[in-house]
Amino acid sequence: MAQVFRILWFEDQLREISSQRAELVEQALEDHGIALTFEDRPVAHDDVLEEVKRRQLLYHDFDFVVLDYDLGGEVTGDVVAARLREDFGFVPMVFYSGNLDGVRGLRGQLLEAGVDGIHCVERRNLVEFLGEKLDELLHPVSRIEAVRGSAVGALAECDIELRRWFVARCDEIDEEAKVKIESRLDANLAESNSSRDKQWEKRGGDLPWKVERADSSHLMRITRTLAGTLGIDGLPEHEAFHKDLLEPRNILGHAVAERTADGLVVRSLHGGEIKPQELADLRRRMAQTREAILRFAVPKEPE
């Protein structure tokens, strides 16, 4: 996704709310073009807590934390909240239960654990509350500044992984096939009248060097050529890549937000307004294409 919002969820009976969580995902995509991802933890052992705390400190892996009170063991959600709060800083947390004495009981548990600044909600109201809270939190990351950054980042990530894939797989073909691929890359560059053509001519025959310096469009074309030579499917068509990732990046890269009497209005380079729903659609398209490219290029983790 061009933008991912990561939720750490402590709950030992997630099947009971799986369908409601799917609604949250659909709502975030529809309203903001942002993908919600869940990392579920059914237990809260010391090693689990230390792991997520370390990841948060090093990588800021989580944007939101949801905690059930009863985790099916000795450690309860209020204790987990106290253990996480310091290392998670101002990351929003939601504490819920269906067994305690409502919100008052939940707050009492947190008070005993010595932790505050955490939202409390009864289980029966949880999904509705999360929908409202997530919508509130996703609005800031839907500002054009954040969207622009995510668009640039999504394309850069795809470029990096495609280059890695190309270099790793290029040795699987013979020299004759390499020459044909390089000739096609040179032809594409000549058609585009790139300012880099002359310096590339001085490095004729050095295919990896050229691939490292190809722009996004040429990189996709040449990677598709190599994939076709190897008989490997899975990459998006170049037209889809251009329409759903490269073009949205270019549109958003030159968009600005103007203050008007009716609020912020996002305008493109040519002055046309980009409405919130259009912005969400651009993000969805970028996310889908990015995910397809990464599925193709990134090695799968061994099971």
UniProtKB/TrEMBL annotation:
This is Response regulator. It comes from Aurantimonas marianensis.
